Amino acid sequence: FPGPFTDVVTTNLKLRNPSDRKVCFKVKTTAPRRYCVRPNSGIIDPGSSVIVSVMLQPFDYDPNEKSKHKFMVQTTYAPPNITDMEAVWKEAKPDELMDSKLRCVFEMPNENDKLNDIDASKSAPVLNTSKQDGPMPKPHSVSLNDTETRKLVEECKRLQAEIMKLTDENRHLRDEGLRLRKVAHSDKSGSPTALGFRDNGSNSLPSLLVVIAAIFIGFFLGKFIL
């Protein structure tokens, strides 16, 4: 049985009947809890063969421990019109039984085999990826997309800062315009200075709103492109 023994290890036995009569067989082991045998008994036709799977259950392997597990394959000629296999073995005489004994050997893979397995596991996903995903994209196209994305992000940040600045200026001008209107209404003499400030404040607001609207449009177009 080849290791490692962290999972089920299966070994096949090939039983062949070279005679011209049907043969009954039974597989026995000294460690029935450690092995699963399928089939463990049956009939082999003349000149035919049967494959018996012996499955070793997972266990903690100790290289210093010698294996004492053994198997025995018993055979006997099948009586005519056989109906009960258990009765065949119970009624069989010792001189009618034939047996073959096998000793179990546990082998751990050497370091070269481990390295070959690791190399194969590393190379296999690469081959599968190249076949399924097709050719890899060109390196310069990837860096170009990253550069464009970085520029757009920086532009959006700049526009956001500009919008915040203009918003503060607009709030300040609006407050100043409200203050000047109050001064103009309270000034009964209608001085030219107050009127001049009121006209300048009212004329600056529309043009400033147009600039803010244009920046907002550019900002939303930038987000849409991203």
Automatic annotation (TrEMBL):
UniProt keyword Nucleotidyltransferase, yes or no: no
Span of domain MSP: 1-107
Pfam families attached to this UniProt entry: Motile_Sperm
GO molecular function, one term: FFAT motif binding
Source superkingdom: Eukaryota
GO biological process, one term: neuron projection development
InterPro entries: Ig-like_fold, MSP_dom, PapD-like_sf, VAP
Annotated SUPFAM superfamilies: PapD-like (SSF49354)
Entry GO terms, CC: bicellular tight junction; endoplasmic reticulum membrane; plasma membrane
Protein family membership: Belongs to the VAMP-associated protein (VAP) (TC 9.B.17) family.
PANTHER family documented for this protein: VESICLE-ASSOCIATED MEMBRANE PROTEIN-ASSOCIATED PROTEIN (PTHR10809), VESICLE-ASSOCIATED MEMBRANE PROTEIN-ASSOCIATED PROTEIN A (PTHR10809:SF155)
Name this polypeptide is given: Vesicle-associated membrane protein-associated protein A
Organism lineage string: Eukaryota, Metazoa, Chordata, Craniata, Vertebrata
Gene designation: Vapa
